[in-house]
Design goal:
The chain is α/β, with parallel strands linked by helices and 159 residues long. The protein contains five helices and seven strands. Strands 1-7-6-2-5-4-3 form a seven-stranded mixed beta sheet.
């Protein structure tokens, strides 16, 4: 499935609509070049999940930011990591055992970071403002999340 975002506001709105339907145990992996809009999209997800935007920052250097909104949201950025050992030392795997939803930027940076069932979004820059989101699922949980997200986007399309 592909989604087109004509501008930054629409990218944020796509994220927000996903955040509105996230449930504990959901796992979303993001890929795309620098500047594709992963962090902007992630801020939208956080707002949709009930996290105050003032609390949301890019976890590029901290690796993991955990927020509390209507559910726990673990925002992870793997850009600076190079191995499973480095990922292990962050406590990431311990978080997987607990409650909350996961939003992981640069999911392909570390082999073994993604579970088997993940909603994967690849953001592509198609023009100065426009982004294309390529969306795939890999199991029943991510398929159910995609269905909830599609219903939410249909109910409240971005402006």
């Amino acid at each position: 499935m592909e989604l087109l975002s004509p501008n930054a506001d629409a990218t944020f709105a796509l994220g927000r609509s996903l955040g509105l339907v996230l449930q504990s145990g959901d796992f979303v992996g993001l890929t795309g070049q620098l500047g594709a809009g992963k962090t902007l999209f992630s801020r939208g997800v956080a707002e949709g999940a009930g996290v105050p935007l003032d609390d949301v920052s890019s976890p590029t250097y901290s690796i993991i930011q955990s927020y509390r909104g209507r559910l726990a949201l673990h925002h992870v950025d793997l850009y600076r990591l190079n191995s499973e050992e480095e990922l292990f030392s962050t406590g990431f795997h311990d978080l997987l055992e607990g409650e909350g939803a996961f939003l992981v930027e640069w999911i392909d940076q570390v082999r073994g970071a993604a579970p088997e069932d993940v909603l994967r979004l690849t953001l592509e820059v198609t023009s100065l403002e426009t982004r294309t989101f390529k969306v795939t699922t890999s199991g029943p949980k991510s398929e159910a999340l995609l269905q909830r997200w599609t219903a939410e986007r249909t109910r409240s399309p971005p402006r």
